[in-house]
């Protein structure tokens, strides 16, 4: 049953990340997910320090707070200081992450809170948190939260598809027709923050970034229809979770690390495969 | 009788950081004409269009369209952004891009109706791209991309079109197709404002010209403002262009000789 819970949890993270990552990679801002997943550290520590517990709710609130702070900082640096967006991302999240590390190293010695956990997660131990839900179904607490977020995000993407699509493809045109481009930007950023914050706790920051960028990038190579790309990214993410999990068991290594590596390998294979295929098509058509 | 202005620009200044992109621009544009906006690179042509469309917020001054703020008449105005500003590797089909032209009328949360579908089909037909409706946009040539953008603007069914460099990097066939389409649109009572950079074709394409170089150099009917003096003022130090043009103006009747 442990296998099932771990794979289910990873797959839910994969779905959430694929939906958001699909839009992020087309907006060339996927590293904002990287930024948020690191920038949550000081918020988590402050929440832990104030509440004195590692209970999920205050930790999530603290993480969400510093995640949003990171997006606002990035926005402010790019808009007001006219910094390149990648530079703004780099400056903002390293600053917040470093503040988090200092806080923990100074006052967090005795806490079961450490940088390792933020970076690599503890998906292997997910079934420690099993609790009865309803109708005799027992699920880990974090998995339930991830499931709720997945339902919310799928709903949000279906509801806001046109708005997200037009502002991603051509924001200037969208603005000229009166579409509230800023609203859709923060709509997406809220989704990304939510995804990152609920995901990193179970799978760690590295795997969050791998899920945000890898499966959408693989899907992008495989299809030229954006809706199909989003669905395919979810499926690729689930397959990589399963593949990565069993690879980790077989090799007896970290699950998060194995899944990330698996995503990277799949990307390489698909990339080489599609390039070879394209060359063949080019040869035939010329 | 003088026509009422369709676009008014008042004391418009746009600063990027501390650098002015546009400085104290003031002019009116007449209705139902093909209007060219010209000037050297970096002279603020695109910024001017973006300010009128509310894409760029002016530092000071204001613009009016149909004697009102743009927000009241947005549904009558179509904007065609510069083709190069877009990622054409985006996974989308020609049809999906042109359908964006209907989002405004139908709203972002309603399905497009059969009427919308007809309008999209019609717009694609006008630019000779109906056969490419299902094509992925990454497979299009520069000229075809420009036609798709034009079709999207036509699908908006506005009366005023602002186009940013629609002739940049397109093939001759597309340029000719677009120009004849623009003439048809003008005959149908539309107003077209076009950012353009090719001085050779300016006289034949435009009824009215706006010449910019961060400041407004001139705005008026083409035959009045397309003069040696005004072009020199606009293009300033770019002597090679100027001498070429003035030579061409002088030697209009003579064939160009090569040594």
Structure overview:
- The complex is a heterodimer of chains A (286) and B (259).
- In chain A, 81% of the residues lie in helices and 3% in strands.
- Chain A is mostly helical.
- Chain A has a single domain (2-128, 139-285), classed as ABC transporter involved in vitamin B12 uptake, BtuC (Orthogonal Bundle).
- In chain A, helix 2 crosses helix 3 and helix 10 (205-222) crosses helix 11 (226-251).
- The longest helix of chain A has 31 residues, at 255-285.
- With 259 residues, chain B is α/β, with parallel strands linked by helices.
- Chain B has 2 domains: 5-198, Rossmann fold (3-Layer(aba) Sandwich); 222-259, no CATH class.
- Chain B has 10 helices and 9 strands.
- Chain B has helices spanning 45-52, 70-73, 94-106, 114-126, 142-155, 172-187, 199-205, 222-225, 228-235, 239-250, and strands spanning 5-16, 19-30, 34-38, 60-65, 77-80, 160-164, 191-195, 208-213, 215-221.
- In chain B, strand 1 and strand 2 (19-30) form a beta hairpin.
- Classes of the chains: A mainly alpha (286), B alpha/beta (259).
Question: How does the SSE layout of this entry go?
Answer:
The complex is a heterodimer of chains A (286) and B (259).
Chain A: H1 2-26, H2 31-51, H3 56-79, H4 85-107, H5 115-120, E1 130-134, E2 137-140, H6 141-159, H7 161-169, H8 171-176, H9 181-203, H10 205-222, H11 226-251, H12 255-285
Antiparallel strand pairs in A: 1-2
Chain B: E1 5-16, E2 19-30, E3 34-38, H1 45-52, E4 60-65, H2 70-73, E5 77-80, H3 94-106, H4 114-126, H5 142-155, E6 160-164, H6 172-187, E7 191-195, H7 199-205, E8 208-213, E9 215-221, H8 222-225, H9 228-235, H10 239-250
Parallel strand pairs in B: 3-7, 3-8, 5-6, 6-7
Antiparallel strand pairs in B: 1-2, 1-4, 8-9
Helix pairs in contact in B: 3-4, 3-5, 4-5, 5-6, 9-10
């Amino acid at each position: 049953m442990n296998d099932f819970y771990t794979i289910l949890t990873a797959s839910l993270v994969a779905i959430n990340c694929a939906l958001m990552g699909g839009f992020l990679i087309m907006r060339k801002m996927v590293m904002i997910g990287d930024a948020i997943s690191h920038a949550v550290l000081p918020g988590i520590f402050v929440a832990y320090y104030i509440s004195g517990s590692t209970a999920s709710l205050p930790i999530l609130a603290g993480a969400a707070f510093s995640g949003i702070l990171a997006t606002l900082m990035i926005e402010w640096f790019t808009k007001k200081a006219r910094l390149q967006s990648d530079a703004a991302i780099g400056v903002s999240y390293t600053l917040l992450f470093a503040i988090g590390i200092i806080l923990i190293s100074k006052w967090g010695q005795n806490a079961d809170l450490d940088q390792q956990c933020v970076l690599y997660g503890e998906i292997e131990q997910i079934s420690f948190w099993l609790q009865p839900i309803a109708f005799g179904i027992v699920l880990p607490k974090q998995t339930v939260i991830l499931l709720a977020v997945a339902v919310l995000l799928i709903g949000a993407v279906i509801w806001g598809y046109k708005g997200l699509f037009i502002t991603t493809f051509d924001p200037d045109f969208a603005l000229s027709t009166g579409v509230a481009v800023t609203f859709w930007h923060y709509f997406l950023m809220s989704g990304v923050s939510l995804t990152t914050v609920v995901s990193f706790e179970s799978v760690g920051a590295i795997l969050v970034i791998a899920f945000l960028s890898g499966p959408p990038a693989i899907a992008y190579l495989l299809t030229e229809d954006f809706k199909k790309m989003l669905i395919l990214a979810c499926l690729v993410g689930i397959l990589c979770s399963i593949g990565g999990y069993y690879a980790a068991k077989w090799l007896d290594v970290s699950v998060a690390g194995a899944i990330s590596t698996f995503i990277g390998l799949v990307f390489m294979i698909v990339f080489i495969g599609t390039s070879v295929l394209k060359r063949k098509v080019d040869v035939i058509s010329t | 009788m003088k026509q009422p202005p369709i676009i008014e620009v008042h004391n418009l200044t746009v600063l990027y950081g501390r650098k002015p992109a546009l400085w104290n621009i003031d002019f009116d544009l007449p209705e139902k004409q093909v209007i060219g906006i010209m000037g050297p690179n970096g002279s603020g042509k695109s910024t001017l269009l973006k300010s009128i469309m509310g894409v760029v917020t002016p530092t000071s001054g204001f613009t009016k369209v149909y004697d009102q703020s743009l927000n009241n008449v947005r549904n009558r105005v179509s904007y065609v952004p510069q083709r190069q500003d877009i990622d054409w590797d985006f996974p989308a089909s020609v049809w999906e891009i042109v359908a964006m032209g209907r989002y405004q009328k139908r709203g972002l949360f309603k399905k497009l109706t059969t009427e919308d579908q007809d309008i999209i089909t019609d717009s694609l037909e006008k630019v000779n791209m109906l056969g490419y409706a299902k094509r992925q946009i990454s497979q299009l040539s520069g000229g075809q991309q420009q036609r798709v953008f034009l079709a999207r603007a036509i699908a908006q069914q506005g009366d005023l079109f602002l186009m940013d460099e629609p002739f940049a990097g397109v093939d001759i066939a597309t340029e000719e197709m677009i120009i004849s389409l623009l003439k048809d649109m003008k005959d149908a009572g539309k107003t077209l404002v076009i950012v353009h950079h090719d001085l050779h074709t300016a006289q034949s394409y435009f009824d009215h010209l706006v010449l910019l170089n961060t400041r407004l150099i001139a705005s008026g009917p083409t035959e009045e403002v397309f003069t040696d003096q005004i072009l020199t003022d606009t293009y300033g130090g770019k002597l090679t262009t100027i001498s070429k043009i003035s030579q061409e103006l002088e030697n209009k009747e003579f064939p160009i000789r090569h040594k």
